[in-house]
Design brief:
EC 2.8.1.14, alpha+beta, 16 strands, SH3 type barrels, globular, 28% strand, single chain, 24% helix, ATP-binding, Rossmann fold, 3 domains, nucleotide-binding
Length: 370
């Protein structure tokens, strides 16, 4: 339980279905936000309030060390390399459905004839059929979170339930109000890095952990048009905040060996679009599909490179080095190395990988982009 409406309603639904519900709160971060408020303590008080109202036990587990070592430090390492990681995907694999799931399974006592299950407030569904445990999209496509769950393998999902997967967000809020949880419903939705929260000035937050190295901001031909504050502070596709001429400049690439930030004029510049990525560290939730058994094999699927993006048709190809290439049928704006590309067969989430490189719409004259 996080102290938010989704996990609170999940507990309510499970209790209504006759389960012996126990609440667990996970503390992963121990510093205050920009207001000087420790949001972790605020959230835990909300969890305790909900558990008291439902008359269920509640305990708190501290994973700040594990989160730092397994998620946050790796996130910082990636930013220092000039790539843009997705710590939420990593957190689900390493912490929520890793360390926390293992802890709950090992330390939860079940009554005679009872089994221990692990439930969260994610908008996704689990399908169990023919010996397989499949991750499916949530029914509410505007809230579907299967993208963030794409790197958790089938073994972890074998004892997992998602009580909200079949509900729209509006119904979840309605249930919360019916049970007197007005204050929980009014809370803003969690945003930003998993457990770190939303930071008003994210680059400033990262600069506390990264040694910023300013460098040249250049156009696609290598002409210096300004200075950047450090490659970690910029994401592909976003505004570069470079003042040069009358154009508005956007980030199209990063060159770590020269510490250069590649910028292009205009939000729809061709270099901001790409249709093919290569991904490493690929995880197939239910094992590698039979259609991709050898290098050169291809499979037609739906793919996304970010949360809430509309799924796009794509072709996945197995490469000789064990990575997978994803060719989208439609170019996508602002693909950033380090992000996750995830694929589905209909509603069935098959898995995904970390984007290693991107094929931009560039010609041979644009040597600076390499």
């Amino acid at each position: 339980m996080s102290g938010g409406v989704d996990s609170s309603v999940s507990a309510i639904l499970l209790q209504q279905q006759g389960y012996n519900v126990q609440g667990v709160y996970m503390r992963n971060w121990d510093t205050a936000d920009e207001r000087g408020v420790c949001t972790s303590e605020e959230d835990y008080r909300d969890v305790q309030s909900v558990c008291k109202a439902l008359d269920i036990p509640c305990r708190r587990i501290d994973f700040t060390k594990q989160y730092w070592n397994q998620v946050f430090q790796k996130t910082i390492d990636d930013y220092e390399l000039g790539i843009t990681p997705n710590p939420d995907v990593m957190c689900n694999r390493e912490i929520k459905f890793g360390a926390l799931l293992e802890n709950c399974m090992a330390n939860t006592r079940a009554g005679a004839g009872q089994e221990v299950w692990f439930a969260t407030g994610h908008y996704a569904r689990i399908q169990r059929a023919d010996g397989a445990v499949k991750l499916l999209r949530g029914v509410d496509r505007t809230k579907d979170q299967s993208y963030y769950l794409s790197s958790v393998d089938e073994r972890a999902y074998s004892r997992v339930m998602f009580p909200l997967g079949h509900l729209p967000k509006t119904a979840v809020k309605g249930l919360a109000l019916e049970h007197g949880l007005e204050s929980i419903v009014k809370k803003p939705e969690s945003m930003g890095i998993c457990f770190v929260g939303k930071r008003t000035h994210f680059a400033d937050f990262l600069s506390q952990y990264i040694n910023a190295q300013p460098g040249p901001a250049v156009d696609p031909n290598g002409k210096v048009i300004g200075q950047h504050r450090g490659l970690f502070a910029y994401t592909i596709g976003q505004g570069a905040h470079i003042h040069h001429g009358t154009d508005r400049w956007f980030v199209a690439g990063k060159v770590t060996k020269t510490n250069s930030l590649i910028c292009v004029p205009g939000t729809n510049h061709p270099l901001l679009f790409a249709d093919r990525v290569n991904a490493r560290q690929w995880i197939w939730i239910n094992g590698e599909p039979l259609g991709l058994s050898k290098p050169g094999d291809t499979l037609e699927l739906d793919g996304q490179i970010r949360y809430r993006q509309s799924p796009l048709k794509c072709t996945v190809e197995k490469m000789s080095d064990g990575t997978f290439a994803v060719q989208f049928h439609t170019p996508i704006r602002g693909i950033a190395p380090g992000q996750n590309v995830v694929v589905w067969d209909g509603d069935w989430c098959l898995g995904g990988g970390v984007i290693d490189n991107v094929d931009n719409n560039k010609d041979a004259s644009n040597e600076v982009l390499t």
